[in-house]
Design brief:
about 30% helix; two-stranded antiparallel ribbon; single chain; globular; 3-stranded antiparallel sheet; alpha+beta
Length: about 110
Protein backbone atom coordinates (compact mmCIF):
# COMPACT_ATOMS: atom_id res chain seq x y z
CA UNK A 1 0.00 0.00 0.00
CA UNK A 2 1.37 3.41 -0.90
CA UNK A 3 1.55 6.16 1.70
CA UNK A 4 0.16 9.57 0.75
CA UNK A 5 2.82 11.58 -1.04
CA UNK A 6 4.98 8.52 -1.73
CA UNK A 7 5.27 6.13 -4.62
CA UNK A 8 4.39 2.44 -4.32
CA UNK A 9 6.27 0.48 -1.64
CA UNK A 10 8.69 -2.15 -2.87
CA UNK A 11 8.99 -5.58 -1.32
CA UNK A 12 12.47 -6.41 -0.14
CA UNK A 13 13.93 -9.71 -1.31
CA UNK A 14 14.09 -12.49 1.25
CA UNK A 15 17.45 -12.71 2.96
CA UNK A 16 19.25 -15.98 2.35
CA UNK A 17 21.29 -17.18 5.32
CA UNK A 18 24.78 -18.47 4.71
CA UNK A 19 26.67 -20.57 7.23
CA UNK A 20 30.14 -19.45 8.26
CA UNK A 21 31.15 -22.83 9.71
CA UNK A 22 29.98 -26.45 9.53
CA UNK A 23 28.47 -26.17 13.04
CA UNK A 24 24.90 -24.94 13.54
CA UNK A 25 23.50 -23.89 16.92
CA UNK A 26 19.73 -23.92 17.32
CA UNK A 27 18.68 -22.05 20.44
CA UNK A 28 16.48 -23.62 23.10
CA UNK A 29 15.02 -26.47 21.09
CA UNK A 30 14.07 -28.23 24.31
CA UNK A 31 12.49 -26.35 27.22
CA UNK A 32 14.12 -28.04 30.20
CA UNK A 33 12.34 -28.33 33.54
CA UNK A 34 12.10 -30.83 36.39
CA UNK A 35 9.90 -33.09 34.23
CA UNK A 36 12.43 -33.43 31.37
CA UNK A 37 13.44 -37.07 30.91
CA UNK A 38 16.27 -38.84 29.09
CA UNK A 39 13.68 -39.87 26.48
CA UNK A 40 12.99 -36.16 25.81
CA UNK A 41 16.68 -35.61 25.02
CA UNK A 42 16.81 -38.71 22.84
CA UNK A 43 13.67 -37.67 20.93
CA UNK A 44 15.13 -34.23 20.17
CA UNK A 45 18.44 -35.73 19.02
CA UNK A 46 16.68 -38.18 16.70
CA UNK A 47 14.32 -35.50 15.36
CA UNK A 48 17.22 -33.11 14.64
CA UNK A 49 19.35 -35.84 13.03
CA UNK A 50 16.47 -36.95 10.79
CA UNK A 51 15.04 -33.52 9.97
CA UNK A 52 18.37 -31.87 9.23
CA UNK A 53 19.85 -34.96 7.59
CA UNK A 54 17.36 -34.75 4.74
CA UNK A 55 18.84 -31.38 3.71
CA UNK A 56 22.58 -31.95 4.22
CA UNK A 57 25.08 -34.42 5.63
CA UNK A 58 25.10 -34.43 9.43
CA UNK A 59 28.13 -35.79 11.31
CA UNK A 60 26.72 -35.41 14.82
CA UNK A 61 24.14 -33.76 17.05
CA UNK A 62 24.54 -32.62 20.66
CA UNK A 63 21.93 -31.20 23.00
CA UNK A 64 23.19 -29.16 25.95
CA UNK A 65 22.06 -30.62 29.26
CA UNK A 66 22.08 -28.62 32.50
CA UNK A 67 25.23 -30.40 33.70
CA UNK A 68 27.06 -29.37 30.49
CA UNK A 69 26.25 -25.72 31.09
CA UNK A 70 27.36 -25.50 34.72
CA UNK A 71 30.32 -23.13 34.91
CA UNK A 72 30.19 -22.49 31.16
CA UNK A 73 28.35 -19.20 30.57
CA UNK A 74 28.28 -19.63 26.77
CA UNK A 75 26.24 -22.84 26.94
CA UNK A 76 22.48 -22.87 27.51
CA UNK A 77 20.54 -26.02 28.43
CA UNK A 78 18.22 -27.03 25.60
CA UNK A 79 20.40 -25.63 22.80
CA UNK A 80 21.28 -28.06 20.02
CA UNK A 81 24.56 -28.14 18.10
CA UNK A 82 24.63 -29.85 14.72
CA UNK A 83 27.98 -30.76 13.14
CA UNK A 84 27.67 -30.89 9.36
CA UNK A 85 30.14 -32.37 6.89
CA UNK A 86 30.77 -29.01 5.24
CA UNK A 87 29.85 -25.36 5.57
CA UNK A 88 27.80 -25.82 2.41
CA UNK A 89 25.78 -28.60 4.09
CA UNK A 90 25.23 -26.28 7.07
CA UNK A 91 23.95 -23.56 4.73
CA UNK A 92 21.51 -25.97 3.05
CA UNK A 93 20.20 -27.12 6.43
CA UNK A 94 19.85 -23.59 7.79
CA UNK A 95 17.92 -22.46 4.71
CA UNK A 96 15.61 -25.49 4.82
CA UNK A 97 14.99 -25.46 8.57
CA UNK A 98 14.95 -21.71 9.25
CA UNK A 99 11.21 -21.27 8.78
CA UNK A 100 10.18 -24.38 10.70
CA UNK A 101 8.85 -24.85 14.21
CA UNK A 102 9.76 -27.48 16.76
CA UNK A 103 7.42 -28.23 19.63
CA UNK A 104 5.43 -25.11 18.71
CA UNK A 105 8.45 -22.75 18.79
CA UNK A 106 10.22 -21.12 15.85
CA UNK A 107 13.65 -22.62 15.12
CA UNK A 108 16.38 -19.99 15.17
Amino acid sequence: MAMPGQGPMLALPAVQVTATSPVICINEVLKIDDKTTNDDYTDVLEDMREGCGTHGKVQGVLIIRPEHAQGRPGLKPGDVYIWCSTTDDATKIMRAMGHRKYDGRQIN
